[in-house]
Design brief:
Blueprint lengths: L1 H10 L4 E2 L2 H7 L5 E2 L14 H8 L6 E4 L10 H12 L5 E5 L10 H12 L5 H11 L6 E3 L7 H6 L2 E4 L8 H8 L4 E4 L15 E3 L4 H12 L3 H17 L2 H18 L3
Parallel strand pairs: 1-2, 3-4, 3-6, 4-5, 6-7, 7-8
């Protein structure tokens, strides 16, 4: 980051950051923030019943989506802990976890390493997830997936999106949830808090606080008028300010500023 700051300060005419926290962390005053866009057209005209049927989900099930994968800074274990609180109030839910399912290597060396690591008390993130699911009796509630190239389908069928990141960084999933008209509950940290107006178009909760996350998720699943209004506000905001066309115009404005300032 230090080298990047030096290079930007010395050589760059302009720099583009994907969030304010990104710019602040780098420590440079030069540059503009242009948030990653969402192709809102991919979240329209989808038949939710067909998608649910394909995944074996009942229409009566409440659906909670977490798209952080197995990266620890995305809070997968906080999310799994929150599910045990949710289960006390709502039993007919499915938690969708893309990018968390994969087959570990079957090579002899890999098996030996895993065995030795487990004996020494070390477990991979995949193993930790397996243990949490089993410990909290969530096997019937959790659906895990490998990589998906149609991730928007999971947003469309979800009732709420949970984003329990533990370290500041931008989350496109916040905007994708808005594009799908789905309420979002996320950690109150840099990058995320910039695009969520708490209690207006989403909920912000203390990072790492599984019970607080669960409480807001349960509230979103209630589908009260407050939640319906929140979904509508988020949908309108994303479609107006975070679509691809708006992103392109922002980038063009930056190029124009550079060109005109150079007197071309």
């Amino acid at each position: 980051k230090y080298l990047m700051k030096r290079i930007i300060d010395k050589f760059a005419d302009e720099a583009i950051y994907i969030c304010e926290d990104n710019k602040f962390t780098l420590g440079t005053k030069k540059g503009s923030v242009v948030y990653n866009p969402v192709d809102t057209s991919r979240f329209k005209n989808q038949k939710t019943d067909l998608i649910k049927n394909k995944l074996g989900i009942k229409n009566t099930d409440k659906i909670i989506l977490n798209v952080g994968g197995l990266r620890s800074i995305n809070g997968p274990f906080v999310f799994l802990e929150s599910l045990k609180y949710i289960k006390k109030h709502i039993t007919n839910f499915k938690a969708l976890l893309p990018l968390t399912l994969y087959e570990p290597s079957n090579s002899i060396m890999s098996k030996v390493k895993r065995k030795l690591g487990n004996l020494l008390g070390y477990y991979s993130d995949r193993q930790k997830m397996d243990m949490l699911i089993s410990k909290n009796e969530l096997n019937n509630n959790v659906l895990r997936f490998n990589y998906l190239d149609n991730i928007e389908e999971l947003f469309i069928i979800s009732d709420v999106v949970a984003i329990p990141f533990t370290k500041p960084h931008f989350a496109r999933a916040v905007l994708e949830a808005g594009a799908a008209g789905v309420p979002v509950v996320a950690s109150d940290i840099g990058g995320i808090s910039e695009v969520i107006n708490h209690n207006v178009d989403g909920f912000l909760v203390k990072k790492g606080h599984a019970e607080g996350l669960a409480k807001s998720v349960i509230k979103c699943l209630s589908n009260q008028q407050e939640i319906i209004d929140m979904r509508n506000v988020a949908f309108k905001k994303v479609n107006k300010y975070f679509n691809v066309e708006a992103h392109v115009l922002n980038i063009i404005d930056i190029y124009k500023k550079i060109i005109y300032n150079d007197g071309i």
